[in-house]
Structure formats: structure tokens, C-alpha cells
Amino acid sequence: MGSFRAFLKRKNIVFSGKRYGIDALGAMAQGLFCSLLIGTIIRTLGSQLGIPFLVDIGAYAMAVSGPAMAVAIGYALQAPPMVLFSLAAVGWAANAEGGAGGPLAVLIIAIIAAECGKAVSKETKVDLLVTPAVTIVIGVALAKLIAPPIGTAASAFGLVIDNATKLQPFWMGIAVSVLVGIALTLPISSAAICSVLQLTGLAGGAAVAGCCAQMVGFAVMSFRENRWGGLVSQGLGTSMLQMPNIIRNPRVWIPPIVASAITGPIATCLFKLQMNGAPINSGMGTCGLCGQIGVWTGWVDPSAEAIAKGAVAITPTGFDWLGLILICFVLPAVLCPLLNGICRKLSWVRDGDLTLS
């Protein structure tokens, strides 16, 4: 046992919640931001501005989200170069096989593949062959074996959301807003779930509300720790950056979740907010303002999925615009700091708990 521990120490393989649940997860969120999310922002800008070149750039960035996440995880695990570069293939396979659960599949599989690669690195005279072969074979084999069930589980989570849309608008507003908002912050793809479920209409509006509560909420209530960089990266990027902090202290998640439970039914019952653009935009929130652009395009030119459910083009009124602004920006920016203040008074949240690594 002592020799095995010495081997692990020599290979810098540390089995710990911090390394896997905080370091690796935090790096994965950054990899996702630098590929899928920034690509979505660029593609959306290109589409709205009529610049095909930007659309192409965004599409290329989105296509490599799996490799970007896997390499980021390997970097956090301090993998040697041969392992790190080999993780690109592992990430691609895990993300492709994982479907709606792609990011979660990448997280699990890339960790295992990276540690196995580190274990054999520089242990043979043919390291140039052995290290990448072990890393890729183990990673891709695991992707084939366990990524599809992870994707099925993520899709099952999506079915919960789909069933919630069949409830009364008030309860549906709460359920969908909370569930999709949670999915957006978790290492699963809320955008993929919404796309698979073709989530449009009132349910899509509730989903947008929940995602905005998470992104804008975390961005504003953590401003004292993360300043302008954190405001932009979370508010226009992803609240998944807060996952390491949520693991450290789950109570920091209370304000955005409660805020989404408030804004969801306001969206569905008061403002009748519908997201009739492309279903993927229902799960994007304020990432590149894709959720808001989806609502706007749904007003003037509904997507085929929305039309199939009876949506028609409308001329938005001032009340429609007021609802969009309040639900997506104002209410989350007001509610989350207030709720976070209550959590601080109860000593549930302390200074530094929301600091991004």
C-alpha cells in the first residue's frame, strides 16, 4: 500500500473532492465558456448583423466544446503534455456520445482518462506511443460505454421539465424556471435539453426567466468579489463558473433558485412571456443575449417548432418589452442581492464564498 501511495504521489494523482469537484469542474466551465458559449455569442451576433463570416467563426468554436472542456480538465489536473493533448479526442467522443449530458460526460470521462494517462506517462521507452494510446483508448471506450446513459439521464431530466409544462401556468412557471435554471448552472446542457424538448411558448419564456435569474443573479450578487470581469463572464457567459463555489457551500445557490421561482410565474401569468424563437435559446439565458434575441425573433418571425405549436408573428407592445426587461434583467438583479443579504445575515454565506477562481 505504501508503494502504491508513493506511486500516486510521484504521478501527482490526488483522489480528492477538491481536485475533481472544484479544480476540474471550474476549469471545465472555463473550457465550455471559451468554446460553446463564446461561439454561440459570436454566431448570434453574426446572424443578427447579417455577417456570415461571424456565423462561421461561431460555428467552429461551438463544434470544439468537447475537446476544449477535456483539455481544460487535464490542465486543472496538471496532466503532462502528451496526456493533455490526447484529451482532445476524449472530449470530442464524450461530448458527442453524451447528447444532452455531454458536459457531464466529459467531466467524468476526462478525469478518468487523464489520471490513467498520467499513471503510464514516461513509464516506458515508447512513451510517445503508450501515453496517448492509453489516454485515448480508455477515454473513448468509456465514452462509448457510459456517455449514452449519462445523456439518457440528462434527457430524463428534460422530460421532467416537459411534464412541468403541462401543469397550470403558475406552477409550470415555477417548475420550468427553477429546473431549467438549475440545469444551466449544472454541468449539463440546458440549451441541449430545451432543444431536444423543443421548448417554446410559455414554457420557453419560463425557461428564459430561470436562466436569467441564475446568470444575472450570480453576476450581480457576486459583484463585490468579482467586479466587472465577473459581471460580464457570468452575466453574458455562464453561471456554471460558480459550480466550484456551490460545491463548497451549496447555500450560495439559494438566492438564484428562489429568484427563478419568483420570476417564472410572473413571466407566465402576468406578462405571458413566450419564447418562440429557436428552442435552444430557451436554455441560453443572457449568454450573448441569446435568450432575449430568441424572444424578439419569436415575436416577429417564429421558429418552425413554435409555429407547429400554434405560434404566430406579433407586433410587440410596450408591455411585452417591459416584461422582457423586468424578467431577464431587473428582477434578478434586485432579488438575488436582497436574498443573498438575508443569507449573509443568517451566516449561510460569507465574504469570498462567491469569488471565482
Word description of this protein:
It is a single chain. The chain is an all-alpha fold. It folds into 2 domains: 2-148, no CATH class; 165-345, no CATH class. Helices cover 75% and strands 0% of the residues. It has helices at residues 2-10, 17-49, 52-63, 65-76, 81-98, 102-120, 127-164, 169-185, 190-197, 201-221, 223-235, 243-248, 254-270, 290-300, 304-308, 318-345. Helix 6 runs antiparallel to helix 7. It starts with a helix and ends in a 12-residue tail after the last helix. 57% of the residues are buried.
| Biggest sheet record | none
Low-pLDDT regions: none
- N- to C-terminal separation? 34 Å
Helix content: over 70%
- The strand count comes to 0
Mean pLDDT score: 90
Task: Report the total helices.
Answer: 16
Shape: globular
Total domain modules: 2
TL;DR?
By secondary structure, this protein is an all-alpha fold.
Give the tags:
single chain, 357 residues, mainly alpha, 0% strand, globular
SSE arrangement:
Elements: H1 2-10, H2 17-49, H3 52-63, H4 65-76, H5 81-98, H6 102-120, H7 127-164, H8 169-185, H9 190-197, H10 201-221, H11 223-235, H12 243-248, H13 254-270, H14 290-300, H15 304-308, H16 318-345
